[in-house]
Amino acid sequence: MDFSGTWKVYSEENLEEFLKVIGAPEMVVKMRKDVKPELVIEQNGRDFTCTVKTPFCSRVNCFSVGKETEICALDGRKVKCTVREEDGKLICETSKFTSVREIQGDEMIDTITAGSVTFISRSKRV
Q: What Pfam families does the record point to (predicted)?
C-alpha cells in the first residue's frame, strides 16, 4: 500500500478524551482540539518519513517497518515502538497506545487506542 502524499485531516473523533487519557498537558488539549493537521508522508519501500503540520508546530517521525524507532506521539512526548505491516495496514504499538493506519478508498484512517478510548482521524489526499 502506498501511503505517500499530502493528507489533510477532515474528521477527528474522541481527540480530546484520547489526549487526556495519554496524559497530555491541558494546554496541548486546548490548542489541538480546534486544529486539523496536514500530514506529509514520504514512503520509499519500507522506509517512511511522516511530517505532521499544524499552525503551532511541525513534527517529523522517521521509521522503517520492522525496526525499533523513537517517535513523537500526539502529546509531543517521545515513545519507542516498532511499526509492522499487516494486510496493507501500518501498526504501531507502544506502552501508551496502539495505532493502526490504513487507506480505504480515497481516505486514510488512523485509529489510535489507549486504554478504553479510541481516537479516529480521517484524511484525504490534497
A: Lipocalin_7
